[in-house]
Amino acid sequence: MKKIIARLCIASIAITLTTSLYAKDKVYKLKMATTWGPTLSPLIDAANNMADMAKTMSNGRLIIDVHTSNKHKAPLGILDMVKGGQYDMGHSASYYWKGKDINTLPFTSMPFGLTSPEQYAWFYYGGGLELMNKVYDKHNVLSFPGGSTGVQMGGWFRKEINSLEDLKGLKMRIPGFAGEIMAKLGVQVTNIAPGELYTALDRNSIDALEWVGPSMDIKMGFHKIAPYYYTGWHEPASEMHFIINKRKFKKLPKDLQDIMIKAIRLSAYDMYIQNYDMNATAWQDMKKEYPNIKVKTLPKEVMDAMKKANKELRDEMSAKSPLLKEVLDSQDNYMLKVREWTKMSDYLYLKDNL
Fold first, then answer.
1. In this predicted structure, what is the pLDDT of residue 5?
2. Fold entry, domain 152-234+294-315
3. Which CATH architecture is the domain 2-149+237-277 placed in?
4. Radius of gyration of the chain from Cα atoms?
5. CA-closest candidate to residue 30, choices 13, 11, 55, 5
6. pTM of the predicted model as reported, rounded to 2 decimal places
């Protein structure tokens, strides 16, 4: 009997070891949908880099197939496709889903809000990541920061803005929450497909437009038409996001979950610094080709009016959603702490050395 039991134990151990080895060798394949087209750097680069790092770090056990918008044809439908299981993952920006869930809005950027370094600190050390996943819990997805464009420029204008009166009746492409602020100041806000923006500006169908920054604006050619380039206020830290179907994530072995999260965090930061370099390089090219571009900041009268409109709209939204108020209050409270250091370090250094 002892020999039989011994043989059974040996067999059991062998089966366990074999199963364990096969589990380690098992390849897990996921599909990721992105909002971006195949050439829209650096946004699409963040998704591709994340997939490449996950494959390398897992020794080929985690394969993520990235689908660009021209493949799935639903660039703004990423959240629905991931929560519904059509895709396992997505890469997009949370403010695109404001119409579906207003609570997702602040995780990309808020006017006059946190800068990118401040926002990353809030996400990872100030409770932002926990609040974000509290918001996304009802959608059955996990969400992580996915790369920032930094401060986005305020836009290209055909004429100079010297007062609030200059905004009255101005036709401008500026979507989302920033568009609502501008509308309160008398701007005729419109949203036009990206492929039609240059033509609309060239033919005077619009007087101004907001896009991103030099790195992506240069490809669109707006600087060839509109000579006034206004500095940013509406998106000081435009963060993209990786979202993951919870059920699919839980099916991954723990080591692959860890690898995925680390690949996400590294690719997000890499996109931020990549875009910083691209902006600097593109701006040098713009200045050289079109030296008459005038970089302007909106007058104090206009900025004050926008801040007032921003507060009114935030208060209206917060009154309707306690969860949104919780998120905005968290960002505001963190800014009170972090902005003092930003001023002491970056601002005063730059002020004294420019």
1. 38
2. D-Maltodextrin-Binding Protein; domain 2 (3.40.190)
3. 3-Layer(aba) Sandwich (3.40)
4. 24
5. 55
6. 0.91
